[in-house]
User: Fold this.
Amino acid sequence: MSNPETPETVKMSQGPVKTASIASLGCPKNLVDSESMVGRLRAAGYVVTTEAERVDLFLINTCGFLRSARQEAEEYIKEALEQKASGVIGKLVVSGCAVVSDGAELATLYPGVDAWIGPNDETRIVEIVESLTTRTSSAPVSKAVDASETPLPTLKMLAPREAEIAREEERNGVVSAAATKIFSSKFRNLTLDDAQRTPLTAPHVAYLKIADGCDRFCSYCAIPNIRGRYVSKPLETVLDEAKRLADFGVRELVLIAQETTFWGSDLYGKPDLTRLLSALKTLNLFDWIRVLYAYPLFWDADLVSLFKHEERGTTSILPYVDLPLQHCNSELLKRMNRRVDKVQTEELLARLREEIPGVVLRTSFIVGFPGETDDAFQELVEFVEKERFERAGVFEFSPEPGTPAFSMPDQIDAKTKKRRFERLYARQERVSHQFARNQVGKEVDVLLDAFALDESGAPMANVFLGRTAADAPDVDPVVYVTGRSLAPGEFVRCEVVDASGLDLVAVPLDPSKIYVPKSERREAHRREDARKQKEAKREKNRANRAKKKKNREERNAESND
Assistant:
């Protein structure tokens, strides 16, 4: 959390000080929503803290994308309810995507939650929270509707077409379930207002959400039903927000959306991410701009040309392309409604490799999608081997209620999905390991994120966790940098000296910042090499002695016969 108030601030404050804390679950897009709600609470006088012994308000911002995410949300809710029962928490509010996907069911299961807030009502967080303590106010938050008469629509209750119709309808209401209120207005578009957000990341890195909602309607994905249709944040709004983040000290700006490459389609009649990236680059306010959640369409020559690493001192749109592909088999891509086939995918990957020097490709794959045959899966394995993605995530297909894939024929059994997951994951892991080993000996810029922690959880004075241009926050491997006179938020030119799994180990090139002098490091490496050679020689001698002993025993046995 950025600049959280200390426990002393909470304890020493006099008068009606209101304290709050938040748990933000799910993806970076959800984190930005959390930051916006925190900013609004702070503006309303709340002290937002992670340290207070008791808080007046605890907010859980949920993800509802997959069943596993909703299960995680329930675990947080259960724990928070226990704390509420013991007096640690005053009011408990749950927000986010799970309120849309499962709000009515969750409200029945957990009546101790004071309010449930869907994504389209999160901008009203202060108004809603204040209403919880002023139920008799003559100016109610909004019209209440009896749950038995108008239940909150959930994905389980709506067919895809019915969900699409409901999403297009304006519905300004609050569904009431006993003492709990569910604030989940239906929408055409989400309100993209992050002007009051308080960053919860480290001060030198921030996410900027350039759009919300989705028009893609992939057959396995519930996001369009949850978040609504795609809406781009206007260019001027994005630039204003970027300037505010730069004023906070942000050095790496990470652009996010359900689909970043579709930005501008509703503003200009066609996607135009090039316009946005060019404008941000012209501001020259950041060292790095990283783009996540791109789609394998709309990559024209102008857009590709922007993804080239610049020299230090100017804004660099990093040669890091996050391109979720999900599969390579054309028939499965069609069933997924991805609107690209294998040939188009391979042509795009070849262009990116050829035209962006040093490009790092991140992707994700779904195994066990309905209809995935053994041959189709083997095709995916060979595709991963051929394309050599530096970063990739592998996921088992999760059938989500309300999506077309939920009821598709030819569902894959759990055992087969798990087996395919393990095989593809292991294959990709080998590719990523090789990429890490290939970095040893190279010179790289490392952005230091934080002090590394020792076994007791205490910060280590001379060991830092950082990232290269090839590493997105939270999802990719890290770089361990050993040095002195360093601090989080700094860029340090380093030499990569080792690879530990997928992580790298590096030391500064600047002699004044080296914790272990280079001469000592080389001597240590020389001694280690000598030790290994000596041990190998011993092992060889042991093997020779064992072989000679075996031969003698065999000769003795023959002579006895």
Observations:
- The radius of gyration is 27 Å.
- The mean pLDDT is 85.
- The longest helix spans residues 518-560.
